[in-house]
Specification:
This protein has 87 residues and is mainly alpha-helical. The protein has a domain at 12-62. The chain has 3 helices and no strands.
């Protein structure tokens, strides 16, 4: 994997907390920053997916009939799993 060096500025207290934690975990500074960036990217992608879901739901909300159908299907699935007849 090709790498690129990056210089960043952090608040002193944040830097000190990072240093304390990474030393306790025995990881390099680069590794700690890479992991933090990876987690931030995963979260931001998740946030984007949630935003798109909400926008889609706002354009096409579920109806009462949709909820009734889902409840029936769930009841049937549970009944089958328990070996009972659906309600």
């Amino acid at each position: 994997m090709a790498t690129v060096k990056v210089a960043v500025s952090l608040p002193k207290d944040q830097f000190q907390l990072m240093e304390k934690r990474r030393r306790a975990l025995k990881v390099s500074r680069s590794s700690a920053v890479r992991e933090a960036l990876s987690q931030w990217l995963r979260v931001s992608r998740g946030d984007e997916a949630i935003r798109r879901y909400v926008e889609g739901y706002q354009r096409t909300p579920e109806s009462v009939a949709d909820w009734d159908a889902m409840e029936r299907e769930q009841a049937e699935a549970v009944a089958q799993e328990l070996g009972h007849e659906a309600w």
